[in-house]
Each structure stands twice: as C-alpha cells, then as structure tokens.
Amino acid sequence: IMGANVGTTLTSTLVSLSFITKGSEFRKAISAGVVHDFFNILIVIILFPLEYYYGVLTYLSTGFSSRLVGSTFMNLQTELSYSVFTKPIIEVVSQLMPYPILLAILSFILLALSIKILSKFLYRSITAGSKEVLQKYFFGGPYRSFIWGTVLTAGIQSSSVTTSVIVPFVATRKVSLKQAFTFIIGANVGTTLTALIAAAFKSEVAISVALVHLFFNLIGALIFLPFAPLREIPVYLAKQFGKMAMKYRISGFLYIILTFFIIP
C-alpha cells in the first residue's frame, strides 16, 4: 500500500513533462508534478520504519476493522459493485484481444488518454471563472485547498486525475505551488474512499487493508498540514528539482525511470 501511494504519483509527473517545450512553465509544471511524489516518499520514510518494527498501521487498522465488522452498519447485506458497468466491456475487449500483454498495453494507453481528457475537462470547467474567483473559492487558504482536494478526489475516486489537473494551474501561475500542495494533501485523503467502498461489505481483512490506506494518508496529512514549516519541505524539494529539470531537461525522464522502475 505504501508502494502504491508512491506509484500513483507517476501520472502527475508524466503530465508535467508535456510542458517540456514551454520554458519557465515547464519548471513550475515539473515542480507541481513531483511535489506529490516527494510528499508520499517522505511519509513512507516516516511510517515504514514504524510499521516494520512496531506495526503501527497494522495495530490501528486491525483494531478499527474488528469493531466495524461487529457493528450494525457492517451487518447490512448490501453489495456495492461496479461490475454491472465494467464487466460487459471487459469481456468484449478481452475477446477481441486475446493476448494478455497487448491487452495490458492497450489498458495503460486508454488509462493515460482518459486521465488526460478528464483532466482537460476539469481544468476548463474550474478555470471558466477569473483567477480571483479560483483563488477565493478553491485556494483561499491551506485548509480550504485541503478540503477541496479531499472532496473532488473522493467524488472522482482518482487522485491521479485531480493531482494532474493541478499541474497546468501551477504552470500558468493561476495557483502557487504552496496552494497546490495542500490541495494534493487533500487528494491523498480523498482517494482512500475507493478502497473503503470496495472493502465496506467484504471481509475483516479487506477492511483492514482499506483502513491501512486511510491511516497512511491521514497520518501524512496530520504531520504536514497543520505545520507551515513542515509543509515547506516537499515544496522546497520540488522547487529545487524544477530548477534542475529546467537546466537539464533529461533529468525529468531519468527521475521517472529511477524512482518508479529501477530503484523499486
């Protein structure tokens, strides 16, 4: 789950590379793309040893899940499932393309395209008003940004989409990197809704896994959000990386290859 939290940040970093030919916009875009990476990596650095040696997340998740399973809410025999929508499509596509590797490649391409299209749609919808309106209603303070990040991501059920939308905001100076970062913290919390829905009416183990995801992101938010000096750390690292990427354009690609593939 910790690895998945780092891996999911790849999308916004890839989106930022689309600004590679746009001078100073690229510096801001790549900073916005990697600040999510650095944030999740820092949380892993803090929580991984605590989980490995003391089982902090395991203790919290199993404790809560055992109480939830015995509750009246969890005794509801309701099944939330998306299979009615997705299963027919999956079966048709898999029959048309019986080769698993090609199907996986096609899935990845379709995922990237759908995120790109949805990101553009959201970007145009949100920026329909003036910059002042955007600042007032969406980014008027760290906690407002955090709440919007949580709500929008919970609604869309994809932090990849909402964090990718932030990249062009920062690149075009509509939103500062500091404002974007608190929005991203909210997106980290909002994305846990997907796992909670999937596990809500399953076994105790499934609920425990979903709760680990929730607690990982909640603890990360509680560490960084209330303290301005701590919020500066990922932002500073992202800005420094942006300066380096501006000077050496190849560094963005090398960073992706190293961070998401070679090092793991």
Automatic annotation (TrEMBL):
PANTHER family: SODIUM-DEPENDENT PHOSPHATE TRANSPORT PROTEIN 2B, SOLUTE CARRIER FAMILY 34 SODIUM PHOSPHATE , MEMBER 2-RELATED. The chain crosses the membrane at residues 29-50, 96-115, 181-201, 207-225, 246-263. It comes from Marivirga lumbricoides. InterPro entries: Na/Pi_transpt (IPR003841). This is Phosphate transporter. Its main location: membrane. It is found in: Cell membrane. The keyword Oxidoreductase does not apply. One of its GO terms (molecular function) is sodium:phosphate symporter activity. It is a multi-pass membrane protein. One of its GO terms (biological process) is sodium-dependent phosphate transport. Keywords: Cell membrane, Membrane, Transmembrane, Transmembrane helix. GO terms for cellular component: plasma membrane.
